[in-house]
Amino acid sequence: MALHIGDEAPDFSATTTEGKLSFHDWIGDGWAILFSHPKDFTPVCTTELGYMAGLKPEFDKRNTRLIGLSVDSVDDHLRWARDIEETQGHAINYPIIDGADLRVAKLYDMLHPNASGEAGTRTAADNQTVRSVFVIGPDKKFKAMLTYPMSTGRNFYEVLRLLDSCQLTASHQVATPVNWRQGEDVIIVPSMPDEVAKERFPDGWKAPRPYLRIVPQPQRPGEPC
Questions:
Q1: Active-site hit among 14, 33, 45, 81
Q2: Is residue 45 annotated as a catalytic residue, yes or no?
Q3: pLDDT tens track for 37-73
Q4: C or N: which end of the chain has fewer Cβ atoms within 10 Å?
């Protein structure tokens, strides 16, 4: 079944490098990012998991939990984690799901439902579509999805930027323009009538077109006044 932005993220129970969890309960009332990998001991993914570990404090500030998925066992994940720490300089500080049975990869539409075979006999090429990022809100619904080829390392600063945008939309009903960065002007969403916008943004806005209402960025949730 294809998954779309706005759908509820499928719930599941799984064993991870930090023990067993039920996904929706683990998310709690915050945000979550699930990012996936086709195989342990692969070069691009090794750089990604280490870099994400170094960025975890930024996600913590945004009330966002991180969880990885790789199509191998927890034992393999733990062995791989030693390589990641030694080569990337950051120890893994978030759970990685045991993906050896391919169940979560199929549940999240990252593998064909008929895909089969033991994790140990499957290659990264067999699992190459398992290269996705899912941004999930407190309502357990997908806010964004990204999928990359195996050969291209993901830009996790872009994931942070995307998360900031999604959180601003959820909190303030604003959208972010092309190449937006934290602190820059934003756009009032078209679905908000002018009467409501005047209450939300009493200082007014710039409108080069009636549908293009530009305002300074509201504070990010949790930022001091």
A1: 45
A2: yes
A3: 999 999 999 999 999 999 999 999 999 999 999 999 9
A4: C
